[in-house]
Amino acid sequence: MCTPALRYVLKPYQWQRIAVFLGQGDVHKERYQIEQAKIAIGSGGLWGKGFLQGTQNKLLFLPESRTDFIYAVICEETGLMGALGILMLYVLLFLHLFIALSRLTCPFSQLFGYGLVIHIMFSTFINIGMVVGLLPVVGIPLPFISYGVSNLWISFASLGAVQSIFRGRTHLIE
After folding, report:
1. pLDDT in tens for each of the 174 residues of the chain?
2. CB-side exposure of 44: number of CA atoms within 13 Å?
3. Is residue 140 part of a domain?
4. Is 26 exposed, middle or buried (0-12, 13-18, 19+ CB in 10 A)?
5. Are 82 and 53 in contact (CB under 8 A)?
6. Are the CB atoms for 131 and 69 separated by under 8 Å?
7. Are the C-beta atoms of 126 and 107 separated by less than 8 Å?
8. Contact, 103 vs 172, CB < 8 A?
9. Of 171, 34, 30, 14, which is closest to residue 107 (Cα–Cα)?
10. Are 90 and 56 in contact (CB under 8 A)?
């Protein structure tokens, strides 16, 4: 499947995730989550089924619908327009933060701020990519939306630290 050198580095469950990502595995076992997520996304249509009206979530076909696969639930209930709205909110947040960080003159503050924002951005990219089937399922929650106290706390703490950098700024390029 991959290079022979990876055979000794990756564990069996990691090989299984790669195999499922490449299209192997039983639809009723290994591929169940991703197949149900695709059904949920596709059944949402343009405007969705309505708030709390998604059948994949309501009838418990979609596992981990509150955590890892919350974006599939959003797509089913609000449709393509709601999914694009969520994406637009994330893009606006990241653009705003990157523009504000680029205006700082202290390189340490910039690097620290970028590091705090990039982990949220990567989590968002990985979660949405895994739900729509572009990336393997790895169990990363969607920041600010997925159920889970530790992820929510870390995401808000990161934004709070970035806000602290902005509040403590004394050297801005105007």
Report:
1. 556 666 677 777 777 777 777 777 665 667 777 888 888 888 888 999 888 888 887 877 777 777 888 999 999 999 999 999 999 999 999 999 999 999 998 899 999 999 999 999 999 999 999 999 888 888 889 999 988 889 899 999 999 999 999 988 545 444
2. 26
3. yes
4. exposed
5. no
6. yes
7. no
8. yes
9. 171
10. no
111 assigned to some structural domain: yes
| Structural domain harbouring 49 | 27-167
What is the amino acid identity at position 167?
A: R
At position 10, the amino acid (one-letter code) is L
Count of domains forming the chain = 1
| Residue 68 counted as domain residue | yes
Determine the length of the chain.
Answer: 174
With tokens 């870390």, the residue in question is: 154
At 116, list the tokens: 């705090």
Distances (CA, A) of 13 to 18, 54, 134, 152: 9, 31, 19, 27
CA separation (Å) from 29 to 88, 93, 102, 111, 152?
A: 34, 37, 47, 43, 30
